[in-house]
Automatic annotation (TrEMBL):
The keyword Thylakoid does not apply. Pfam families: DUF1538 (PF07556). This is DUF1538 domain-containing protein. The chain crosses the membrane at residues 12-29, 35-57, 78-95, 115-138, 145-161, 173-193, 205-225, 256-275, 287-312, 324-351, 363-383, 389-407, 419-438, 450-472.
Length: 486
């Protein structure tokens, strides 16, 4: 029953894109023979793969994540807590599917950037900022101050970093908060919350959004010590090609096993020396890992066999037809993505629970849809005109940091976390490949122009949830004033 529920959730998030691309194929941008069928088969494989993966994560990884968080906090040893945060953060990134897809796409357009250096930098960034997230809760440091200092550091590093790295750096953060990292990090936070003596509801949030900042900062630091990363796409050699699905199973299996190994080893070590789960739960965890592995294999086969090549072609053909079509598609795909993203539904339920139903679901859903749709449009506008990413990120995140000092504390971490969960697997697969194709078609440089689209999907939900928090604060103030008047 749980498996069918996962299939339904993932299917609802992928189906709109399948329908949209099919309509484009028949009426606007006809794809070459075999591409549309490969895309649809790839979509089915992605739905099945992500469903199995999420089911396996729920069964096998989230329970041990909670137990690790509780166990290390009970020990009351700060050094153990910090080491755990670092190791868990790094192991998660090695296994995160969004990061694997991002590395492939970066290699496609910028072969001068080392995938291994990127992977290690992103993993270290997540580990370090997961440490900061945990220390913040233990020492009761205000989350808004952590955000303010972190984003100020990002701005300073960005000024001195190579422009070609900026989009990739910010997308690294967006991709790091993917379908594996988010639930595992949240489970770790829940485990810590269970054994904290003085814990507020606001302390349950902020882990995921801080994990987004870490990879971005690490990549900007990497750019300071790297060579020239400005490698333009060569359309004749860099176009992703449709490949037979059967030929992708062997490399995908090898990739999955090698990426999951560090996380599995880490869980085994904590089980032996610290957690000591009963045998029944260990067997259940083993089944969960098998489900997750099989799901990841299907996911990578579907992504590489259908989604990435077709996303590139759709973006390229729309750009060749009319640049205005790119703006329209960016708006539509952004709005559709957030409407169908399962994690967004969870976010809305959280906001409703926090506000006791004062902020209605249709209003929140419409606001998020308009916001992310606008992000998609802005991303395409930036690609068409080759505008610096700072023109968009500084105003939005600057406003977000300022608003964090005006809204209730409960909404601070929740708002920044909402941006992290809005960029699901679609952003790092189809939408990013679409952006690369669009940039190539208009004669831009995808390294500096196309990358950054994942963070565009992530940034507007932050401000929207904060504005909802501000609205809730004013409603509460009116209710209190009315109560006193009586």
């Amino acid at each position: 029953m749980e498996a069918l529920k996962k299939v339904k959730e993932v299917g609802l998030s992928i189906l709109p894109v399948l329908l949209l691309v099919t309509l484009l194929h028949f009426f606007v941008t006809p794809l070459s023979e075999g591409m549309i069928s490969s895309f649809l088969i790839g979509g089915v494989l992605i739905i099945l793969g992500l469903s199995l993966f999420l089911l396996g994560t729920d069964i096998g990884l989230i329970p041990i994540g909670e137990r690790i968080g509780s166990a290390v906090t009970r020990k009351k040893r700060l050094s153990l807590l910090l080491i755990t945060a670092l190791l868990v953060g790094m192991a998660i990134i090695f296994a995160e599917p969004n990061i694997s897809v991002l590395l492939e796409q970066v290699s496609l357009v910028a072969p001068s950037i080392s995938p291994l250096s990127m992977l290690l930098s992103i993993a270290l960034g997540v580990g370090l900022f997961l440490m900061i997230a945990m220390v913040r809760v233990i020492l009761h440091v205000g989350l808004k101050w952590v955000y303010a200092i972190s984003y100020l550091l990002l701005l300073v590093l960005g000024i001195f970093s190579k422009p070609e790295f900026l989009g990739i750096a910010f997308d690294s953060g967006g991709a790091a908060t993917g379908p594996l990292a988010v639930p595992f990090i949240m489970a770790l936070g829940v485990g810590i919350a269970h054994v904290q003596k003085s814990q507020t509801d606001a302390d349950n949030f902020g882990y995921v959004s801080l994990a987004l900042i870490g990879p971005t900062m690490a990549m900007l630091v990497l750019s300071l010590f790297s060579g020239d990363g400005n490698t333009a796409v060569q359309t004749t050699s860099s176009v992703p090609q449709i490949q037979p699905f059967l030929s992708l199973f062997a490399p995908s299996t090898q990739q999955v096993l090698s990426s999951l190994l560090p996380l599995v080893v880490l869980c085994i070590l904590y089980q032996i020396f610290l957690v000591r789960m009963p045998a029944r739960q260990l067997i259940r965890m083993a089944f969960g890992l098998v489900y997750a592995s099989l799901g990841l294999i299907l996911f990578f086969v579907g992504v590489n066999g259908g989604f990435i090549p077709v996303g590139y072609q759709i973006g390229y053909q729309l750009g060749q037809l009319n640049e205005s079509l790119l703006l329209v598609f960016g708006l539509v795909i952004g709005a559709v993505t957030v409407l169908s993203e399962p994690s967004v539904a969870v976010l809305i339920d959280q906001v409703q629970e926090i506000t006791q139903g004062h902020l209605r679901k249709p209003i929140m859903l419409a606001a998020l849809s308009i916001g992310v749709g606008g992000s998609g449009l802005m991303a395409m506008f930036r690609i068409i005109h080759s505008l610096p990413i700072w023109y968009f990120l500084v105003p939005v995140y600057g406003l977000a940091v300022l608003l964090s000092f005006r809204i209730p504390d409960l909404f601070v971490g929740l708002s920044f976390d909402s941006g992290s969960v809005s960029s699901g697997p679609l952003a790092s697969t189809f939408i990013l490949s679409f952006a690369i194709g669009a940039s190539t078609s208009v004669g831009g440089n995808p390294v500096s122009d196309a990358f950054g689209i994942i963070i565009f999907v992530s940034m507007t939900p932050v401000v929207i949830v904060q504005l909802l928090g501000l609205l809730y604060k004013r409603k509460q103030a009116k209710l209190e004033k009315g109560g006193k008047g009586q």
